[in-house]
Amino acid sequence: MHAINYEAPSTLDQAVSILKTHGENARPFCGGTDLLIQLRAGVRRTSHLVDIKKIKELQTLSFDAKKGLRLGAAVPCIDISESDVMRKHYPGLTEAAHLIGSLQIQNRASVGGNLCNGSP
Ligand SMILES: Cc1cc2nc3c(=O)[nH]c(=O)nc-3n(C[C@H](O)[C@H](O)[C@H](O)COP(=O)(O)OP(=O)(O)OC[C@H]3O[C@@H](n4cnc5c(N)ncnc54)[C@H](O)[C@@H]3O)c2cc1C
Q1: Is 107 near ligand 1, meaning CB less than 6 Å away?
Q2: Domain range spanning residue 83?
Q3: Of 37, 56, 75, which residue is a domain's last?
Q4: pLDDT tens digit string along 13-23?
Q5: What average pLDDT score do residues 39-62 get?
Q6: Beta carbon of 39 within 6 Å of any ligand 1 atom
Q7: What angle do CA 40, 71, 110 make, to 5 degrees?
């Protein structure tokens, strides 16, 4: 692996600004369960990793009968599969999150990362 700069912004604005500045040379990541493996295997290269786990809005998991579900892109799968609210209103998502890898992976892996990687 080559040297990579690590950044962990605490706001969406900061994250967007870093990604904009470095363009194709920057990559957002969350759990790293897909991306770090791809970097190690040399199938992907980047010079800036932008860790989005510290961005509060992206960690939101809330439900309101009128407004519906708010599910942040950085919410780990374990929070979904262990949430009573999710089990009650979105059992399909609960099951899907529970099916991803092992408990260790579910603790790291995010919903956003899963959608963005699109791995079958
Ligand atoms: C042992 C093992 C078992 C696994 N089992 C399964 C399985 O059963 N089913 C399955 O579907 N997957 C599985 N995976 C793959 C992986 O764990 C999941 O896809 C996981 O949800 C990825 O989330 P992450 O947060 O770790 O993503 P990361 O590795 O952090 O990111 C994945 C990709 O998404 C991009 N990305 C991440 N967050 C964002 C964002 N907010 N906005 C834009 N782009 C973003 C990154 O740049 C990267 O390209 C497994 C992986 C391992 C190592």
Answers
A1: no
A2: 60-115
A3: 56
A4: 999 999 999 99
A5: 96
A6: no
A7: 15
Relative to the CA of 44, which ligand 1 atom is closest? 49
| Res 105: pLDDT | 97
Which contiguous run of DSSP H or E holds residue 29?
strand 26-29
CA of 99 to the centre of ligand 1 (A): 13
Q: What is the CATH number of the domain that holds 31?
A: 3.30.43.10
Report if residue 1 sits inside a domain. Answer: yes
Cα(66) to ligand 1 centroid in Å equals 31
- Asked if residue 65 and residue 52 are part of one domain, the reply reads no
DSSP 3-state helix, strand, coil percentages of the chain (rounded to 5)?
Answer: 50, 20, 35
**In a shared domain, residues 87 and 107:** yes
